[in-house]
Automatic annotation (TrEMBL):
The gene is Agr3. This is AGR3 protein. PANTHER family: ANTERIOR GRADIENT PROTEIN 3, ANTERIOR GRADIENT PROTEIN-RELATED. GO terms for molecular function: dystroglycan binding. It comes from the Eukaryota. Belongs to the AGR family.
Amino acid sequence: IMLHSTLALSLLLIAVSSNFAMAIKKEKRAPQTLSRGWGDEITWVQTYEEGLYQAKKSNKPLMVIHHLEDCQYCQALKKAFAENEEIQEMAQNNFVMLNLMHETTDKNLSPDGQYVPRIMFVDPSLTVRADITGRYSNRLYTYEPQDIPFLIENMKKALRLIQTEL
């Protein structure tokens, strides 16, 4: 009987600990869903509508990143974006952040086409800032990994515009 109860107890402990380990794993993976690899420390909103609401409420600009999972340019930009401390810190503290793998119904978010990656800013008055552009005249709102310093400048510009205009 002693052996039997020890075995039962150790099986119970194994079951409990593996459930516990799974709970911990789930806990760890939770933020990944909305971040999709762009930065797990950043608080991401789920929808464009929620982003607009939060931008207005918090008086922070909304940064919208359009991307696709199987796009190599998006993957490369995502890696550079996620690894850049200055971007991550600004994104977490000064912006409402949204990354989308589908287009919204707001045509203002695709002024020159529906390409990816595409990053646009919306100010707290809910105006899409078509004036904050990247370096490429054929795709105004795209950025490549080497454009990260340029993206940082544009993030700062989006923040400055709020101070001066609103």
